[in-house]
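quick one, two chains, predict together pls
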Amino acid sequence: MQESVGQELISFRIGEQEFCVDIMAVREIRGWTQATPLPQAPSYVRGVINLRGAVLPIVDLAARLGLGATEPSVRNVIIVVRIGHRLVGLLVDAVSEVLTATADMIQPTPDVSSDAVKMFIKGILALEGRMVSWITLDRILPEQEAEAA
Amino acid sequence: METLEAIKVTFFQECEELLGDLETGLLSLQAGEGDDETVNAVFRAVHSVKGGAGAFGLEALVRFAHTFETTLDKVRSGALKADEAVLKVMLRATDILADLVQAAKTDAVVDPDRIAESSEDLEAFWGGHDTAAPAAAAGESDDWDFTPLAFAPVPSLAPAGPPRWTVWFKPSTATYAKGNDTVLLLRELARLGDCETVLDASSLPAFDALDAEESYLGWTVTITTEEGEAAIREVFDFVSGDCEVRISGEVVAMPQLSTLPILPPVMDLPPLALPSAQIPALAAVEPEQRDVLPVDGPADLHPRDKAAKKEKEAAPSAAPTIRVDLERVDRLIDLVGELVINQAMLAQRVGEIDLTRASNVQLALESLEQLTREIQDSVMAIRAQPVKSVFQRMPRLVRETASMTGKQVKLVTEGEGTEVDKTVIERLSDPITHMLRNAIDHGLETPDERIAAGKAPEGTVRLSALHRSGRIVIEVSDDGKGINRQRVRELAVERGVIAPDQPLTDDEVDNLIFAPGFSTAKAVSDLSGRGVGLDVVKRSIQSLGGRISIASKAGQGSTFTMSLPLTLAVLDGMVVSVGEQTLIVPLAAIVETLKPKKSDIRRLGTGMLLAVRDAIVPLIDVGVALGWRSEPIDPTTGVVLLVECEVGGCAALMVDAIQGQRQVVIKSLEQNFQRVESIAAATILGDGRVALILDVDTVVGERRVEAEAGGSPRLALAS
């Protein structure tokens, strides 16, 4: 884990499972605040919160990955990530640690998981008996509706 | 290099303003409103573009600007009358000049044929090729063109301006040996005033006898300048001793001398140098007289009058201005937005700790609130701009559209000075462009049709802007044939926009052209049919919190009316509660609020209606419309907001309670997320939470479409 070349990742928990995202995408980590729900939004979009004057959409990552909706409480955490030019908050259960992953630690996603999960998993990290799934962020937000109907 | 780039950016910014001035000037000349000053302003605009372009070595631009300038100079000097034909060519030349500037900016190339065509048209007015060196152009010292020069015929009553000087100079071989360049001298002279430059190549030997190192050429420059002789002398400071220079003042008493070398027709004559022997003599005779002399000239020659005239020229641009990077202003707006939110938070906190109303804290808070509002208004005023910047681009569009459709169009603009926030200005251009194209392409008839209908062959399109109850209203009207309701109806039925037997008022039929899926595909032309239907225009206007509608009279024309908020940064809103949520309803949309009585509620199928005095309007539960609850609340426990919107006339929105009115700062949902149906934007409340701003038109409009489609909500979403 101490290799000089390698990518730094932030790992977090949703239920019993562990996931991670590229640390470069993470802007900040903050506690849960009540979100304002958006009409006609997908169920995994919890709503929007005020992040120092900007309106930040909150994605319930568990719901997005098809693991069931989260019942957020003060113990939950929002990871603020940059996706393209957007800032988005990811609702997770808890943040665990910072990992350094080298290329040889990453395995391709086995062909067993559900499609919903596979869409977002870039690879699997096997660490001393733990398994951490690396999440790609580009597809987390709902597809943009085409402007011209 | 970076500095040069920065200067270049400034140059292009200036170019945009200059081109605008140019077009405005020409148009006012065309309308018969211009005077000499307008001609001068137009000339100056082209001249400045040329000057700047020369500095950056933009050859094509310089060359074309020079031709243009020469033609304008003829107009200025009175040799050419600015009649309809001339102005038409000049307006086209303005378009090309704009294209060239744009091309220079993006390193693109403008079709050389178009440039050549326009240049020829311009040249046709004064017959021939002007090779007089563009004063500020770079690199014409390489110009080995010794053809006799033509120059502008000056009016015989020459002294219609500042004193004129004749400068004759011939650099010696030593001048060049020391690295001096004649072009720099000419450029310096040009800086003093307008110059007529004549090349004296009379001592140039035959080619075989030519010594490459020898200097043969001399120049006679007739310069019109307020500066004195000393200033002219100063130009030659660096070459003194190496260069023969003779300077003489304008002599009105002997006009034949000053006008002699520039009397038309000159083209066939060999180049003339001023008889140098006479010049010193003249200078000796006239010095005290030259400022006093033009007694016979027009009255405005008097220095005092000239000074007055100068003042008049300067007057329009008297108020000092600064250029500021837009980002800085936006940053300021954001900060003020934060300040407003913070102030609201503070007010709420103070309210929570239950101070007596008269306490000092409360008073200080009130003055803080007032200050905050004033700061906000002032900052908004910084960004407010007249719509002129958008309107200015339209005459060109109209000309192009007119020539493509073969129609004759006159554009009349009104209310160019109407101010609106920068955020709105930027987004006005597309809808206006579309509406204008539509008016010309579909609204106006061809000249033949118009004559047959007993109208003038030239159609009129009117573009106007005005402020009305806190919004900006833009109208585009034409005096064309109006909407063919029969055909619109047929098409709408054909495309499944409406049911064949649906009863519609004329007004409703007219507004069908904005319906999604309605695009007069049969009439798709190069212009309006660019794949963007009016429904998209409508949607983009709605997303700005605006509305658009059309009114039409058969045979008399149509009028598009578009109204937009003056700013996209703040909004006066009604704060309401819906379920556990707080929502903002734009105050502009609310007509009145009321508590409904049980007897006023009617049920119609699954929907509800509310009787308001003698009208019956649909009653919409906002919570249900937004999907926050499945069953509407009991209307008698809630509050009803009577709203007016563009699509469905009046409607009643039902909410749980009203919290109050407040000015809110608009925050985009699209920045970090995407457009949300029925929601215009978001804001941040005093308690730091996000509240959504309701898009009244969509909420009501959607209900209407649902109702019309027989209660199927899917159709509204699918369209």
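Helices of chain A lie at 61-64, 115-118.
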